[in-house]
């Protein structure tokens, strides 16, 4: 399954300078957060494939004006074309506001998904806004990753974890893909194409 993953920065080639056919060939589009609702609504209209999303820490307007035609997968495990997809948006709490969590709060969110993970015999794609701790995160508190993701990845060994939050211009290291055990951890800032396989 060919996935277009988006996060943090609206891609001008897919919006202001969009031409018909640019989104052909994708089976699914996933937003890892911090994108305008109007942008995602445009993408889902042009692509004619589902758009799934989790919240970024700046997506405070989604409650009043959610992306039309898109599906929020926060704290859910869904199956699309045989691929199991888990959504855990937000970042580490660094100030008052929504879509920010302490390590304890994130661990609690993951615990609540244990039954679904058991029922579906694991997960193939984990969609987050923040990265795992020590795997593509940054040193400041706002952009530090979650340690809570590490046991999740170790136990269920998904094919990929897709995240945003750490913009590519924040640091000298521009590495987009990192390997953590059996999982590819990918920073999809702006846009990134990834292919995953449905389990046999």
Description of the molecule:
This protein is 17% helix and 26% strand. It has a single domain, classed as Metallo-dependent phosphatases (Purple Acid Phosphatase, chain A, domain 2). The longest helix is centred in the first third of the chain and has 11 residues. The chain has 200 residues and is α/β, with parallel strands linked by helices. The protein is globular and about 45 Å long.
Give a short synopsis of this structure.
The chain is α/β, with parallel strands linked by helices. It is built from four helices and 13 strands. The protein has a single domain (2-195), classed as Purple Acid Phosphatase, chain A, domain 2.
Give the C-level CATH assignment.
Alpha Beta
Radius of gyration in whole Å, from Cα? 16 Å
N-to-C SSE string, H for helix and E for strand: EEHEEEEEEHHEHEEEE
The counted number of beta strands is 13
CATH topology title: Purple Acid Phosphatase, chain A, domain 2
Strand order of the largest sheet: 5-6-9-10-12-11
Structural class: alpha/beta
Globular, elongated, flat, extended or rod-shaped: what is the shape? globular
Averaged pLDDT: 94
How many domain regions? 1
Poorly predicted regions are none
Cα distance, first to last residue?
Answer: 14 Å
Number of helical segments with 4 or more residues:
4
User: In which range does the helix fraction lie?
Assistant: 10-25%
- Give the amount of beta strand, in percent: 25-35%
Q: CATH superfamily, please?
A: Metallo-dependent phosphatases
How is the main sheet built? 6 strands, mixed
